[in-house]
Specification:
It contains 3 helices and 4 strands; from the N terminus they run βαββαβα. It is an alpha+beta fold. The protein has one domain: Alpha-Beta Plaits (2-Layer Sandwich). The protein has a 4-stranded antiparallel β-sheet with strand order 2-3-1-4. The protein is globular. The two termini are 26 Å apart. Belongs to the UPF0045 family. It comes from Enterococcus hermanniensis. This is Thiamine-binding protein domain-containing protein.
Length: 98
């Protein structure tokens, strides 16, 4: 594995219920990709190959728009190491899971 991405998707909505509905659709898409991921309160972390993860990041915006919002903002963090393995989500968070 050469990359890890954290994405926070912020759709422009009129209510919190609508925001949660759209974010849930984005998370459902991420789940469908088969990549290892972890949902947090503010962002979702995903790990895998760099090119594939960049496609996921792009599609998260499109999913939100297709869900009916007029605008979406996203905050992205990327760790990329093409010549070796990066720290996994499990390695970074396992000791903190209940």
């Amino acid at each position: 594995m050469e990359a890890s991405v954290a994405i926070q998707v912020l759709p422009k909505t009129a209510s919190n219920d609508e925001l949660i509905r759209v974010v849930d659709e984005v998370i459902d898409y991420i789940r469908s990709t088969g990549y290892t991921y972890q949902v947090g309160a503010f962002e979702t972390s995903i790990e895998g190959d760099y090119e594939g993860l960049m496609e996921v990041v792009k599609n998260c915006q499109l999913i939100a728009i297709k869900a009916g919002v007029p605008q979406v903002s996203s905050y992205i963090k990327i760790v990329y190491q093409p010549t070796g393995d990066i720290l996994t989500i499990e390695h970074k968070t396992k000791k903190h899971q209940q």
